[in-house]
Write a structure and sequence with these properties.
The protein is of the alpha+beta class and 87 residues long. The chain has one helix at 2-23; strands spanning 28-38, 43-46, 51-53, 67-75, 78-86. The chain has a domain at 28-86: Copper binding periplasmic protein CusF (OB fold (Dihydrolipoamide Acetyltransferase, E2P)). The longest helix has 22 residues, at 2-23. The N and C termini lie far apart (62 Å). 10% of the residues are buried.
Length: 87
Amino acid sequence: MRNFLVPAAIALVLGTSGIAMAATAAPQSITSTVKTFDAKTHMLTLANNIAYVLPANYNTALKAGQKVTVKWEMNGAKYQADSIAVN
């Protein structure tokens, strides 16, 4: 029984440490060029071909070629933008 409990306890501790780190990940930032912007769906695609979901209340028009800085974080499998600054 002891031979089973020690490896199981170690696996439990190691398995939950990754979850804790993911939950506390800080927002990240990227400065890039706008590739496309869809105001209806609030989707911003940058030159790196990653689409960022903008906040629902974001109402500034963005144009292809503009340089922007996006502060974002992962929300499931989506890149959720917290703020956008036009440079």
